[in-house]
UniProtKB/TrEMBL annotation, chain A:
InterPro entries: MetI-like, MetI-like_sf. It comes from Sinorhizobium glycinis. PANTHER family: INNER MEMBRANE ABC TRANSPORTER PERMEASE PROTEIN YDCU-RELATED, INNER MEMBRANE ABC TRANSPORTER PERMEASE PROTEIN YDCU-RELATED-RELATED. One of its GO terms (biological process) is transmembrane transport. The chain crosses the membrane at residues 30-56, 89-113, 125-145, 165-184, 191-210, 239-261, 282-306. Coiled coil: none annotated. It is a multi-pass membrane protein. This is Spermidine/putrescine ABC transporter permease. The keyword Transcription regulation does not apply. It is found in: Cell membrane. Keywords: Cell membrane, Membrane, Transmembrane, Transmembrane helix, Transport.
UniProtKB/TrEMBL annotation, chain B:
InterPro entries: Bact_Polyamine_Transport (IPR051789), MetI-like (IPR000515), MetI-like_sf (IPR035906). GO terms for cellular component: plasma membrane. Residues 68-256 form the ABC transmembrane type-1 domain. It is found in: Cell membrane. Gene3D superfamilies: MetI-like (1.10.3720.10). It is a multi-pass membrane protein. Keywords: Cell membrane, Membrane, Transmembrane, Transmembrane helix, Transport. The chain crosses the membrane at residues 12-36, 64-92, 104-122, 134-152, 240-259. Its main location: membrane. Belongs to the binding-protein-dependent transport system permease family. CysTW subfamily. This is Spermidine/putrescine ABC transporter permease. PANTHER family: PUTRESCINE TRANSPORT SYSTEM PERMEASE PROTEIN POTI.
Amino acid sequence: MTVVAESLVLPERRSTAGRLSDFFWRHPRVLLTVLLGPPLLWLGIVYLGSLFALLLQSFFSIDEFSGLINYEFTLATYRQLLSEANLDIILRTVAMAALVTLVSAFIAFPIAYYAARYARGKWKALFYLAVMLPLWSSYLVKVYAWKLILAKEGILTWVFEKLNLIWLLDAWLALPIVGGNSLSVSYTGTFIVFVYVWMPFMILPVQAALERVPANLIEASSDLGGTPAQTFRHVLFPLALPGIVAGSIFTFSLTLGDYIIPQIIGSSRLFIGQAVYAQQGTAGNIPLAAAFTVVPIVIMGAYLWMAKRMGAFDAL
Amino acid sequence: MRSEKTNRAPLGLKIAAAAGLAFMHLPILLIFLYAFTTEEKTYQFPPPGLTTQWFAVAWNRPDVWAALTLSVKVAAIATAAALVLGTLCAAAVSQTRFFGRETVSLLVILPIALPGIITGIALRSAFSMADIPFSFWTIVLGHATFCIVVVYNNAVARFRRISGSLIEASLDLGADGFQTFRYVILPNIGTALLAGGMLAFALSFDEVIVTTFTAGQQSTLPIWMLEELIRPRQRPVTNVVAMIVVIVTFLPILGAYYLTRDGDQIAGAGK
């Protein structure tokens, strides 16, 4: 009896690798530490470390005469952040991000719905690639393409001319706020490019949410006499909402922090990202730049907390 | 009985979806047209004529080549680092249960969930506080940080599909942990890692926001393009470079798609 029992246990391994592997098997905690150590050290030190160092600096202030950082705890920088000019920047950015998110959802929904419910087999794969390729293609190239399109001598003006609608474009550009000398130096231009660049991030989460809506739920709604509009309002939209919220995390956050698009296509009025860039670069006011970065972090924190409560993360 | 009618898309939906897709693709196609234009000074449409001479001009530009080489080097090293760190993290999160597992996932995602400018400026001020001069390696450091999540996402999705009994069987048959990794786990996760690596490469190759903060005098290809965007000097060369960038980033995306398309989760679902 004992002989059988002993033969069931393998002899101890002789090689170093074998011993090490046995050791890990007996001490799973050690294995876990070895696996998690390097990535956590990297992210913890490189990423979180610099993030905290940055946030810490927002509690310092800058000496107005010498331009050096005064390393004493103060809330003066935050008082400066809440000045009228800076609040204006924050409000402008948040309003733009909210508008971009709404319009992105509006454009993304039909694409996501078609892909989730009607596209099958080869078409489904094609749809997927048709969404993925623009999503992943180069950010700068996309912005560049719009610089070509929105330029005064570019394709958009040409199209309006061919359609004899150039008066419409001129009338739009003559409007206050949204207008400007040409589309490429107006808020309208900034807005279009923001939507173009971030909208693809909305499609996949919405599609994921819609894939989970059983087709017979929609049939049941129309069997019970619901018009397509009612079905959308009471069945489809509530079920797609977590997906829209999940997608809006990307569109909202990415618009909040962007500083390149408004710099290249837009008016001279600043967005949060540009303010951060200007404060840390030419102005050399790192504390104020740090305080500015706190704004998107706080907004996104609140947003993520709300999204989590709505169950948006299940749709990711 | 299911009626045939409900399986056909309403016309309005078809038009809206087609218009949305056209909105996404036409601007990129326009880049291809402009690479051949004879116009040098403006963005005139329609192009007055078509030529292929700008390809030769771009080919002979040392600054474009230098930027391209730097971008490829940075992307290659950042991808390698992200592959190791992302796989380790994915293995730990999917194969074991421990306190704070959710936090680890959050920590990995954070570098791309927060706006890039925050990551960029945080790294920059940390480098200057620690007196680290900006160099090739500071760019790599930044890129690897946000590339980890791409590899991690792909690897976690694949790890979830490996049945635990496969690993137990290997161990029961006398393989040690390293042999199990080499002969059982690696062949199973190989394509997912390749896909994740390709996507990480594409992400790093294209990154500009963090790079503007972590690069000193070096210019990667996106930084070269950014300078051209702010102060256009050689529009025809920029047109050609833009077209090449589109092609170079499309290949890894297509590759990653074909490597992972049988899976339940397809690579790159979240950038």
